[in-house]
Amino acid sequence: MKLKRLLILLFFPVFATGQTGLSLKEAMDRALQNNLEVRLARNNAEAAEWNNHPGVAGALPTVNLSGGDVQQSTNIYQKLANGTIIERDGAAGNTMNGALAVSYTLFNGYRISATRERLARLQEAGDAQLLSQIQSTLAAVIGRYYDVQRQEQVGQALTRSRDFVAERVKVLETRARVGLANDADLFQARIDLNASEQALSAQQLAIRQAKLDLSRLLAVPGDSTLSPTDSLILDQSIRQDSVRSYLQRNPDYVAAGAQVVINEQLEREINAQRLPSLRLNGGYNFQRSQSEAGFSLINQSYGPNIGLSLQVPIYNGGAFERQHRVAKLQTENARIQQQNVEQGLLSEALKTYAAYRTALEQVGLQEENEQLSRRLLDILSQRFATSQATVLDLRAAQASYEATAASLANVRYTAKLAETELKRLMNRLPE
Fold first, then answer.
1. Nearest-CA neighbor of 112 among 58, 62, 63, 60?
2. Interval 360-411: pLDDT, tens
3. What is the pTM of this model?
4. What 8-state DSSP symbol labels residue 311?
5. Do 190 and 173 touch, CB atoms closer than 8 A?
6. Which of 50, 162, 219, 372 is 20 to 30 A from 137 in CA distance terms?
7. Domains in the chain and their CATH numbers?
8. Using only C-alpha atoms, what is the Rg of the chain?
9. 164-208, pLDDT tens digit by residue?
10. What b/e string do you get for 306-316 counting C-beta neighbours within 10 Å, with b at 16 or more?
């Protein structure tokens, strides 16, 4: 059901290229519509669905219709026992035939049932692989989407810091005009202002690059005007026990389990080749020949037919045994691969969960640090304006604010990435 809901998004556009405001849902929908890997996985899943049919497994009868009409010209020379000679050039002849043949497998060692089960599991694996690609694409979109916001938040902090430096320059210039400030403090302030402008310019470049990365993922390359509108909200409700329980819904794990069944059914199909096969055959035949030469000028026959055909394999050079041994090894490898996938998913989930909880703890601390550093910068700026704080105090407060603001943006982004990865592993994207 979840896969069907996601597939609906692949066929309906949600926003125009020229639009700048962009919600997370719009970004995810657009990516699903245009991502090339998703389209490939979707085609593979559709092919597996088409192959999952009783006719492909041999469970349905086969019906064939054939016919022919041949015109001929014959030169004849016949000498009979009584001495009569028959000689004719260009004797016309016509032969017509038609047949309707129906064949139905009554028994072939349960090969049909094994094939049908294998085709069903192939479709399941195709759906799981499509869902896995969709989950990976959505996780990438979420990461790029909030990376733009992270870079913008850092840019806002740098802009605020630049404004404080510019104010410091004005204060020092005013003091210098009345002889209350030395040139060293003023020169340092101007140097700091230039450095702030450079840092802000570099950050604007980082913002544009982040937007370009997002636009490429949405198949609108070169568009740096996209502006995410959804705020980053952290989901703090994920628990470790729920992560473990959801891992069996992971599409990679589902696909690995389907592959085990696929190989088991291949074993059954190979074993079925050792058993007799019985087919029911029937049809209707028509034949008519006409010739101007010979003793029979017209010969015509028609009518229905029905019968059974039995095939019993006796010996084929040991091919069955070799095929069966190979199939058993492939099944064992599929089981090993399933265990490997399960262990890998569990290990990745536990590491990601630890990073997620750590990042959430750091977010609270960094939010407090950012608020304190901002208040400190405000206070010292006011004190500096009244000559109650030194340049060194103000510069230290400014550096502290820039660092804590950037750290807050980074740790919130890290927490969101860990949250997104956990939900991808749990097959919970989107919610």
1. 58
2. 999 999 999 999 999 999 999 999 888 899 889 999 999 999 999 999 999 9
3. 0.82
4. E
5. no
6. 50
7. 2-34+110-275+316-425 (1.20.1600.10)
8. 39
9. 999 999 999 998 888 887 888 899 999 999 999 999 999 999 999
10. eeeeeeeeeee
State mean pLDDT over 74-88: 77
Tokens of 4: 């069907």
Contact between 376 and 428 (Cβ < 8 Å): no
Residue 186 backbone dihedrals phi, psi, to 5 degrees: -65, -45
Q: Which residue has the tokens 């089960």?
A: 117
Task: Report the number of secondary-structure helices (H) and strands (E) in the chain.
Answer: 10, 6
Longest dimension (CA), the chain: 152
DSSP state of 235: -
Identity at 188, one-letter amino acid code: Q
Average pLDDT, the chain: 90
Task: For the beta carbon of residue 299, count every other beta carbon within 10 angstroms.
Answer: 12
% of the chain residues with pLDDT over 70: 94
Structure tokens at 343: 């262990």
Q: How confident is the model at residue 12 (pLDDT cuts 50, 70, 90)?
A: very low
